[in-house]
From TrEMBL:
It comes from the Archaea. The keyword Cell cycle does not apply. Pfam families: Methyltr_RsmB-F. GO terms for biological process: tRNA methylation. GO terms for molecular function: RNA binding; tRNA (cytidine-5-)-methyltransferase activity. It comes from Methanotorris igneus (strain DSM 5666 / JCM 11834 / Kol 5). Belongs to the class I-like SAM-binding methyltransferase superfamily. RsmB/NOP family. This is RNA methylase, NOL1/NOP2/sun family. S-adenosyl-L-methionine binds at C84, A85, A86, P87, G88, G89, K90, E108, D152. The active site is at C201. Keywords: Methyltransferase, RNA-binding, S-adenosyl-L-methionine, Transferase.
Length: 264
């Protein structure tokens, strides 16, 4: 059974107001550890097709996918990079946490996915995002350094969502190599004292703990910051490396790790 959640866009509406509006239409909502997120228990219609959705009052996403932006915890003074941004669930969440201030560079390599990113940023009324359709590995040529970086890496979990095929060992190895390349580039793009949050929706160790072990062994300018598990009511356990987190079923599987650049 897939659990369904919505994240209220507090830039546009108060969570209680939205809850009342949807409940008046017959939607049953349950509160979560986040004051602006609800589990959808029952709905007489698709929650992705309501006027409130089209107005940008909320985003439909798993509660697991709300954790990485919270762990990154950007402030309104930060320059933030979202390395793999489409369709924009985490980008718009970061903007919400920053109260639409500061600046977010949202990078997406696939032009076919830029459409959903743009649509969601516009629908949610986001004003602090610059979208770039490019390979994020080329960003270091631009001479930019970031306070906070979110690397929600492409993973074999994305393949699982494509019901027409199953994940192979080759998929996992391919993803793991790509993730290592991305996290290495991400650390290069951080300011000294800057923080990178790495996440995937894969359950595979090679794509999670394996990537973190790789980067900690390869570089001496980065350290792991422990993440506190304050996520009540969802299935969160410690990952295979102390200080990392894993979300496990019935919630969408997720892995989250937090790194800090300790010298430039």
């Amino acid at each position: 059974m897939n659990l369904q959640y919505i994240r209220v866009n507090t830039l546009k509406i108060n969570p209680e107001t939205l809850k009342n509006r949807l409940e008046n239409k017959g939607v049953m909502l349950k509160e979560t550890f986040l004051p602006y997120a609800f589990e959808v228990l029952e709905s007489p219609f698709s929650v992705g097709a309501t006027p409130e959705y089209l107005f940008g009052y909320y985003f439909v996403q798993s509660i697991s996918s709300m954790i990485p932006p919270i762990v990154l915890n950007p402030s309104k003074d930060d320059l933030v990079l979202d390395m793999c941004a489409a369709p924009g669930g985490k980008t718009t969440h970061l903007a919400q946490l920053m109260n639409n201030e500061g600046a977010i560079i949202a990078v997406e390599i696939k032009s076919s996915r830029m459409k959903s990113l743009k649509a969601n940023i516009n629908r949610m009324g986001i004003a602090n995002v610059i979208m770039l359709n490019m390979n994020v590995l080329h960003l270091k040529e631009k001479d930019l350094k970031f306070d906070k970086i979110l690397l929600d890496a492409p993973c074999s979990g994305n393949v699982i969502k494509d019901k027409s095929r199953s994940v192979t060992k080759e998929d996992i190895i391919y993803c793991s190599n790509r993730q290592k390349e991305l996290i290495d580039a991400g650390i290069d793009l951080l300011k000294e004292g800057g923080v990178l949050v790495y996440s995937t929706c894969s359950a595979e160790e090679e794509e999670n703990e394996g990537v973190i072990e790789y980067i900690l062994n390869k570089r001496d300018d980065v350290e792991l910051l422990p993440i506190e598990n304050n996520f009540k009511g969802i299935n969160v356990i410690e990952g295979g490396i102390e200080g990392t987190l894993r979300v496990i079923p019935p919630n969408e599987p997720f892995f989250i790790a937090k790194l800090m650049k300790i010298k430039d």
